[in-house]
Amino acid sequence: MVSTSAQFIFFCLFILFTATATTATDHIVGANKGWNPGINYTLWANNQTFYVGDLISFRYQKTQYNVFQVNQTGYDNCTTEGALGNWTSGKDFIPLNEAKRFYFICGNGQCFNGMKVTVLVHPLPPPPSGSIAANSTPSGSAAPVVFHKGLVGLRAFVLALASILFGSGWI
Fold first, then answer.
1. Which end of the chain is more exposed for a tag (fewer CB within 10 A), N or C?
2. Backbone torsion region of residue 99, taken as left when φ is above 0, otherwise alpha when ψ lies between -120 and 50, otherwise beta
3. Is residue 10, in this structure, part of any structural domain at all?
4. What is the DSSP letter of 127?
């Protein structure tokens, strides 16, 4: 049995890590229409804002379609030569892990029928002004700690580890 003090410590850690947690956005390509020919993916992408740490996911019939990450030339010419990635599960979750333009096409010829999308991934926006102290800290003092999306995985790991070590029957 875990002592009450250990449960209290775990509870405090839990509050610390979940209170500041942010989540990545999962952008489902084509929304409810999915990854299929004849859809205007440029219009879909222009109505989205992508940030580093977000996911782009493709939903499609895996026996009919696929997803290739390509460079701009591959995108413009609908070719998979020199592809940077290839997914075929029908439910593909692709992390957008850097601020740049990403290019995706369907590699079975459907790119010519519009199955291609390009997205511009932006750097994370600065934290809201309420989450950091004003620039009134004295010189040499510690800067406030602000958690960003990149630490979500660390928080999840710490919570899972604490749950294993302390048990989770009381939650």
1. N
2. beta
3. no
4. P
